[in-house]
Amino acid sequence: MSLIYLSAAELSAKLGSGEVSSVEATQAHLDRITAVDGDVHAFLHINAEALKTAADVDARRAAGEQLGELAGVPIAIKDVLCTIGMPSTAGSRILEGWIPPYDATVVSRLRAANLIPLGKTNMDEFAMGSSTEHSAYGPTHNPWDLERIPGGSGGGSAAAVAAFEAPIALGSDTGGSIRQPAAVTGSVGVKPTYGSVSRYGAIALASSLDQVGPVSRTVLDSALVHDIIGGHDPRDSTSLKDTWPSFAAAARAGATAESLKGLRVGVVKQLDAPGFQDGVKLRFHESLAMMEEAGAEIVEVSAPNFEYAVAAYYLILPAEASSNLARFDSVRFGLRVNPAGGGTVEDVMAATRGAGFGAEVKRRIILGTYALSAGYYDEYYGSAQKVRTLIQRDFDAAFAQVDVLVSPSAPTTAFKLGEKIDDPLAMYLNDVTTIPANLAGIPGMGLPIGLAPEDGLPVGLQIMAPARADDRLYKLGATLERMLEEKWGHTLLSQAPNLTPTEMFAASEGAV
Amino acid sequence: MSESHPEPADGITADVVRHLAGLSRIALSDDEIGKLTGELGAILENVAKVNEVATPDVPATSHPIPLTNVYRPDVPGETLTLEQALAGAPEHDGSRFKVSAILGEEQ
Amino acid sequence: MAKAELMDFDKALELFEPVLGFEVHVELNTKTKMFSDAPNFFGGEPNTNITPLDLGLPGSLPVVNEQAVRYSISLGLALGCSIAESSRFARKNYYYPDTPKNYQISQFDEPIAYDGNVEVELADGRKFQISIERAHMEEDAGKLTHIGGSTGRIQGADYSLVDYNRAGVPLVEIVTNMIFGAEKDAPELAKAYVSAIRDIVVSLGISDAKMERGNLRCDANISLSPRGSGKLGTRTETKNVNSLRSVERAIRYEIQRQAAILAKGGTILQETRHWHEDTGVTSAGRPKSDADDYRYFPEPDLLPVVPGAELIEQLRLALPEAPAIRRRRLKEAWSFTDLEFQDVLNSGLLVEVEETVAAGASAQSARKWWTGEIARLANIAGVDASTLVSPLHVSELIALIESGDLTDRLARQVLEGVVAGEGAPHEVVDARGLKVVSDDGALIAAIDEALAAQPDVLAKIRDGKVQAAGAVIGAVMKAMRGSADAARVRELVLERAAVTE
């Protein structure tokens, strides 16, 4: 079995036993990237130092050094995260080629744990989008169907793990950018409790919503990554000082024990919506039945204010983003475009931002600027922040009755590239299931629960837990994963179509 | 955080979009302004529904997980080198960032 | 720049009532910046005291400096303010190349301190209450240098250079309520107010408070209300006022300028005006197109500051005495007459005299030098006396006089050297060879003794009968057992006779 089909946990076992070297594992993934990424386009940049870093880890292991569990395992990093030595563009033309002088805290923790950064993954520009079609560097394609979107904004990271280009990846989730791509690519992703993973060095979209998290093919792998990147960071004021249990331990416990017995599982009435795709509803209700059969108590709960979540989100996010993105002004870093015939610094800033930002970014900045404007603040931003309170209250009431909440991760399976690109409102509704968790700061996991019969594409389940109870996600997620795979007799991703080496690759071999 | 309450946002005109583009320093073509005018109006119409439930008795939430008094000790840390600071600059004079004239000729 | 027409000051006051308001920015002297751990130090090599945050790099985040919060609370308490139970930061959004994030982290609707009061004293001893609206925390901007054009000013420059070393330096902005009733004392009141703020921050030890270095900056709002109209006029905001002297001059100028316009039926533009120290005029600043819409919103990267009663009480107990009490104490300790003490206050030199005395000088000598020779030199140079020389150097100078190493005349020359940047007084003495010869100390003692013993001779010398000095010279030579140089003794006898009283 090729190394690329191993989970990170399996690969680390082989690395630990000496059966496989990190150089071999890294080379296998680099080869896979060369073979398929011309079609998938999950990566914006490949780390030229990857093999060198892998060799170094191998040498240290050979010298008898005690290394962490994922030491030597390759990982892909969403381009929203700052990385020394690798461009960090957040999918934007305005940051083309920018190499940060510092690592995001999560990246320095990966390095300290001796993981091997493979490269930077594609994303919607500044994480604004649900399809990666808003990347300035071209869209990423869904490995299940190259004509379809891989979700967004973290379509690159999700596609990279789903296409076996990397066993694990980092993503960021502001309104579903980890969980929705996981759903449409048949992979796993977790948005941790707000403040449990550092945002330092994550290029900000909406500061009060953004959270970095793991992307993987298995629940345990996400837990292993979460254990490494999580925990307090004094450089992020919103970082929680809590001590966290081992999420890997929670996942391992969930994979073996009967975590469903007596578990109260809430179904949010408003997220079990009739407008959702049939296959999505079908697989969701099958999974509920499976949980009930295994001893869980399924409880319908109502969250009446979720109806207002998307509206509140599309005020809060643009408002914060309009301010966070003000720094891209051509003075200290990034693109500079001089208007024809010169001009003042103000003209240069405007020309640069006009040329350097894509349509969606401009749309949201203009919207956010409006929402914060004198006279409209109370009506828009102020009201949206109140809705946030109401959504938190809905969650509080729900979690008073149940241990976890579940919903479909996304209303539909992967749609076709180009299908919604000209309809921002339709695009925004993709996040209806995932947004409430960001507004309330609670953790959410997306994991595959089958294929929709009508299109054969993956369907995802979202599990949500109260703030700080991320371990519940891993425990329940691992149980469900085991039960489903026992039922199917295989992993979901093993059913994805084979990706053939691309023509680009063939051309480089001189075969055409 | 404003105190005044001008007309509600029912009329998003091209001039409003042009003003917002100016405030946010984005040069837009007339085509872009035209397109954005329609989109912004439609989006605002949609998101304005927050006012249905955002009544005066509901407090606003700025941070999802409430914390207070998060401080840093007053101890100097590492700084960037001049080379690092200037590495990404579109233009510099060896120690400072260079920008076009701030005022135009007519000012 | 066209010269503005001015109305005679007294005439202006006849027609209009001036209404004042001040925004004073105090740079705190913490070790690090407000939101980053870069050293709080600027003026060195450009762009070397910066972290990713101070450069606004993508992904960077602010973290509040605890000491800056404590300093701000102390300042709020010293201003007689209430301290907010809960206070938060807000983003003030505007594009300017000296602002690395293109928003300033400031405070808007929940400042750390509010509703205070500062008592200031005018030259004639009258007391005036200035009501403080708020004091809030924020961060400073970087420094722009304008290149090209004839003046080095922003107008006509070809391009500008930006140094972000100052970006993020902690500031407290103190905002007054509108001040009515200052009338003709408006310029003096302005100066007295800024001086009072300076005294407060110096006594708290929270700022270096050097106006010429921008540690303390005053934006002065002035409007004129036509007498009997009961209506407020349109105000201007004058910035770049970098000395106590300028505060007074700028207010006087704006009153005269606005009065001339209003009297002709013109209107005052609500605008920022820049004070020009060299020419003594204000000019229209860059019209800020975004000034009407800063799009303030709560800073999502920072959490509320909730000081707690215990911390506030702790800081309250540690406050230095109130300015009025302090003034009373110092006047008594120094045994100054009302006139002497008022002289020091009016010159804005209370801190300097206090520090000079603390460094070992007598209060009278400290007062004499600061309000005399140093103030005279400052006046010629058109700067504040405090900028010319440090209290430590003045104290050293006084010690050299009292030990007999310097005469007053020599001391004035030494002072000139110190002001010219030649070093500490003893260094100037060495470099310029100004010291009374090494054994003059002993000689002077003998001379003073001889002069005291022969008051009639002293009187004659003072009357110009120089030959009478012979008797004293003889006595000194005898006392020195002939080891002294008679010519030098003669010189010194005449000099001492002139100064000894």
UniProtKB/TrEMBL annotation, chain A:
GO terms for molecular function: ATP binding; glutaminyl-tRNA synthase (glutamine-hydrolyzing) activity; transferase activity. The keyword ATP-binding applies. The lineage of its organism: Bacteria, Bacillati, Actinomycetota, Actinomycetes, Micrococcales. The gene is gatA. This is Glutamyl-tRNA(Gln) amidotransferase subunit A. Pfam families: Amidase. Its EC number is 6.3.5.7. Allows the formation of correctly charged Gln-tRNA(Gln) through the transamidation of misacylated Glu-tRNA(Gln) in organisms which lack glutaminyl-tRNA synthetase. The reaction takes place in the presence of glutamine and ATP through an activated gamma-phospho-Glu-tRNA(Gln). The keyword Ligase applies. It comes from Glaciihabitans tibetensis. It catalyses: L-glutamyl-tRNA(Gln) + L-glutamine + ATP + H2O = L-glutaminyl-tRNA(Gln) + L-glutamate + ADP + phosphate + H(+). Belongs to the amidase family. GatA subfamily. Keywords: ATP-binding, Ligase, Nucleotide-binding, Protein biosynthesis, Transferase. SUPFAM superfamilies: Amidase signature (AS) enzymes (SSF75304). One of its GO terms (cellular component) is glutamyl-tRNA(Gln) amidotransferase complex. Residues 24-473 form the Amidase domain. InterPro entries: Amidase (IPR000120), Amidase_CS (IPR020556), Amidase_dom (IPR023631), AS_sf (IPR036928), GatA (IPR004412). Heterotrimer of A, B and C subunits. The active site is at residues 78, 153, 177. Gene3D superfamilies: Amidase signature (AS) domain (3.90.1300.10).
UniProtKB/TrEMBL annotation, chain B:
Gene3D superfamilies: Glu-tRNAGln amidotransferase C subunit, N-terminal domain. InterPro entries: Asp/Glu-ADT_sf_sub_c (IPR036113), GatC (IPR003837). One of its GO terms (molecular function) is transferase activity. One of its GO terms (biological process) is regulation of translational fidelity. The keyword Amino-acid biosynthesis does not apply. SUPFAM superfamilies: Glu-tRNAGln amidotransferase C subunit. Its EC number is 6.3.5.-. Keywords: ATP-binding, Ligase, Nucleotide-binding, Protein biosynthesis, Transferase. It holds the Pfam family GatC. It catalyses: L-glutamyl-tRNA(Gln) + L-glutamine + ATP + H2O = L-glutaminyl-tRNA(Gln) + L-glutamate + ADP + phosphate + H(+); L-aspartyl-tRNA(Asn) + L-glutamine + ATP + H2O = L-asparaginyl-tRNA(Asn) + L-glutamate + ADP + phosphate + 2 H(+). Allows the formation of correctly charged Asn-tRNA(Asn) or Gln-tRNA(Gln) through the transamidation of misacylated Asp-tRNA(Asn) or Glu-tRNA(Gln) in organisms which lack either or both of asparaginyl-tRNA or glutaminyl-tRNA synthetases. The reaction takes place in the presence of glutamine and ATP through an activated phospho-Asp-tRNA(Asn) or phospho-Glu-tRNA(Gln). Belongs to the GatC family. Heterotrimer of A, B and C subunits. This is Aspartyl/glutamyl-tRNA(Asn/Gln) amidotransferase subunit C. The gene is gatC.
UniProtKB/TrEMBL annotation, chain C:
SMART domains: GatB_Yqey (SM00845). One of its GO terms (biological process) is translation. Gene3D superfamilies: 1.10.10.410. Residues 351-497 form the Asn/Gln amidotransferase domain. Its EC number is 6.3.5.-. SUPFAM superfamilies: GatB/YqeY motif, Glutamine synthetase/guanido kinase. One of its GO terms (molecular function) is glutaminyl-tRNA synthase (glutamine-hydrolyzing) activity. It catalyses: L-aspartyl-tRNA(Asn) + L-glutamine + ATP + H2O = L-asparaginyl-tRNA(Asn) + L-glutamate + ADP + phosphate + 2 H(+); L-glutamyl-tRNA(Gln) + L-glutamine + ATP + H2O = L-glutaminyl-tRNA(Gln) + L-glutamate + ADP + phosphate + H(+). Keywords: ATP-binding, Ligase, Nucleotide-binding, Protein biosynthesis, Transferase. Heterotrimer of A, B and C subunits. Belongs to the GatB/GatE family. GatB subfamily. Allows the formation of correctly charged Asn-tRNA(Asn) or Gln-tRNA(Gln) through the transamidation of misacylated Asp-tRNA(Asn) or Glu-tRNA(Gln) in organisms which lack either or both of asparaginyl-tRNA or glutaminyl-tRNA synthetases. The reaction takes place in the presence of glutamine and ATP through an activated phospho-Asp-tRNA(Asn) or phospho-Glu-tRNA(Gln). This is Aspartyl/glutamyl-tRNA(Asn/Gln) amidotransferase subunit B. The lineage of its organism: Bacteria, Bacillati, Actinomycetota, Actinomycetes, Micrococcales.
